[in-house]
Write a structure and sequence with these properties.
Elements: H1 10-22, H2 27-34, H3 38-50, E1 54-56, E2 72-74, E3 80-87, E4 90-97, E5 102-109, H4 115-132, E6 140-147, H5 173-181, E7 185-189, H6 190-201, E8 211-216, E9 220-226, E10 229-230, H7 254-263, H8 274-277, H9 282-307, E11 311-315, H10 320-332, H11 339-342, E12 352-353, H12 360-373
Parallel strand pairs: 3-6, 6-7, 8-11, 11-12
Antiparallel strand pairs: 1-2, 3-4, 4-5, 8-9, 9-10
């Protein structure tokens, strides 16, 4: 079946967002929460079911008489989207369904290409994945790209891409990608994309409206979700905390830890051989964790003061034990909790580690077109 493009009414978007943030609900519950009539809910849900955007679950049994309630939820059959993340010779491609489920997640080595060559390669890979997972003919919302660098234009078309991608800096990436891929393209900073993935897939969407995700990758950046929307700032640079950590000094990043280990004589070359290479160098890792925790403390305290988030999470492709050790050190340090936090219903909470690992940016990029379809960005 060939699905037409989605064009939603405001009330339909509100209903979809309610189901995304609160899980399955009955028609009567939706009518109460959205403050619209049962007749209007019936009309809205019928239209959304017809577009395969929501679906009915088995009816919940009732203790007494009356009709059983039928919960509704976001339907995975509503379509899919593709996300791309590119860094240090590695291309990650994520494919997610409309409900946020992961259809495919791949990682491959890729030679340096200019933007046009990269788009042609991606076009072939998307077609291959669509064939492999029987997606041809299903609604494709578009392509998301997690850019390894900050925006250079307010429209998100030009980006300050890292140096190892020649020909990318200040190129009109979205225009180039859309011309080759013949699909709508969304581009966000990799940390912002990671925050969106954590919000949708890490359980935060049903827990809080404001969250901060700090991405420790080749650089260090933060993604911010505020009131359910991505925070970009005036020129798209919100969360560019890397400016606090100059590149010519030690930094709390993946590359910095690898360089620190190499300086100590460890034969590690990349994340691919990390766990095999570091035995015997645990003391070096622990010293790096202590230093990284000291470096991140002020950034985290600033986030608490400026944004009052309901969660702060760390995300990185580094092995989970290293990240958990870093979080433990941060939680033992002097995190500044205001009285309004301590006395609130939420109270204090620990700095947590994302369970998405290094896949967060690609998954978040894939969620960008779906997130945009209900106008929450």
């Amino acid at each position: 079946m060939k699905y037409p493009p989605v064009s939603l009414l405001d009330e339909e978007k509100r209903l979809l967002w309610q189901l995304r943030t609160h899980g399955p609900q009955s028609r009567s519950d939706l009518a109460n929460v959205l403050q619209i009539s049962n007749a209007a809910i019936s009309k809205l849900t019928k239209a959304l079911i017809g577009q395969a955007l929501i679906e009915e679950l088995p009816a919940a049994p009732l203790a007494g008489r009356g009709r059983p309630t039928v919960p509704l939820r976001i339907s995975p059959a509503g379509g899919y989207a593709v996300g791309l993340a590119l860094y240090a010779g590695i291309l990650e491609i994520a494919v997610v369904d409309y409900a946020g489920g992961t259809i495919a997640l791949t990682s491959e080595k890729i030679a340096p290409l200019d933007p046009q060559g990269f788009a042609r390669h991606v076009d072939r890979r998307i077609h291959d994945l669509a064939l492999e997972h029987r997606l041809l003919g299903r609604r494709l919302y578009g392509i998301g790209f997690a850019a390894p660098g900050p925006a250079l234009s307010r429209d998100g078309n030009r980006w300050h891409i890292v140096r190892n991608l020649p020909g990318w800096k200040d190129a009109p990436l979205r225009d180039l990608f859309e011309e080759t891929l013949r699909l709508p393209v969304w581009i966000e900073n990799d940390a912002t994309a990671a925050a969106l993935a954590e919000y949708y897939l890490g359980g935060l969407i049903q827990r809080c409206t404001t969250a901060v995700v700090i991405l420790l990758g080749h650089g260090v950046g933060a993604g911010i979700v505020h009131e359910g929307r991505l925070m970009r700032g005036e020129s798209g640079g919100a969360g560019e905390i890397g400016m606090f950590y100059p590149g010519d000094r030690p930094r709390p990043t993946t590359l910095d830890l690898i360089a620190t280990l190499q300086a100590a004589g460890c034969p590690v070359e990349s994340l691919a051989d990390f766990e095999e290479a570091i035995p015997g160098y645990e003391a070096v890792v622990e010293a790096w964790q202590e230093r990284a925790a000291d470096q991140l403390l002020q950034t985290i305290n600033s986030a608490l003061a400026w944004l009052d988030p309901g969660a702060i999470r760390l995300m990185s492709p580094l092995p989970a034990p290293i990240m958990h050790g870093l979080a433990a050190r941060l939680n033992r340090r002097a995190i500044t909790w205001g009285d309004h936090v301590t006395a609130s219903e939420r109270g204090r909470y620990p700095i947590e580690i994302s369970q998405l690992g290094g896949a967060g940016s690609a998954l978040g990029a894939a969620l960008l077109p779906i997130h945009a379809s209900i106008a929450r960005i």
